[in-house]
Amino acid sequence: MKARSMLAIRIISVSLIILAGTALFAQDKYTLQVPNGLAFSEFRGYENWQVVSASLDGDLLATDPR
């Protein structure tokens, strides 16, 4: 019985550690910045950008919004 209690405590402890680690790494992505470069905050809402494909036919460039 004592072995089961210890196993349960270990499983709960590991689960809490994983949740705490996830919370630390799940900080606001818009605070990230490339050193001496752009910040994610400059592209806020990029997840909703429309996908566009382009094709080149000789000297002509055609775009196809999808």
Q: Can you describe this structure?
A:
With 66 residues, the protein is of the alpha+beta class. The protein has one domain. It has a two-stranded antiparallel sheet with strand order 1-2. A hairpin with a 2-residue loop joins strand 1 and strand 2. The chain is elongated. The model has no long low-confidence stretch (mean pLDDT 77).
Short description:
This protein has one domain.
Provide keyphrases for this structure.
alpha+beta, two-stranded antiparallel sheet, elongated, 2 strands
Helix coverage percent: 25-40%
Proportion of residues in β-strands: 15-25%
Question: Strands of the biggest beta sheet: in what spatial order?
Answer: 1-2
- The count of domains is 1
The ordered H/E elements are HEE
Individual helix count: 1
What structural class should be given to the helix and strand makeup?
alpha+beta
Rg from C-alpha positions? 24 Å
The low-confidence parts are none
Distance between the termini: 61 Å
Shape field: elongated
Rounded mean pLDDT is 77
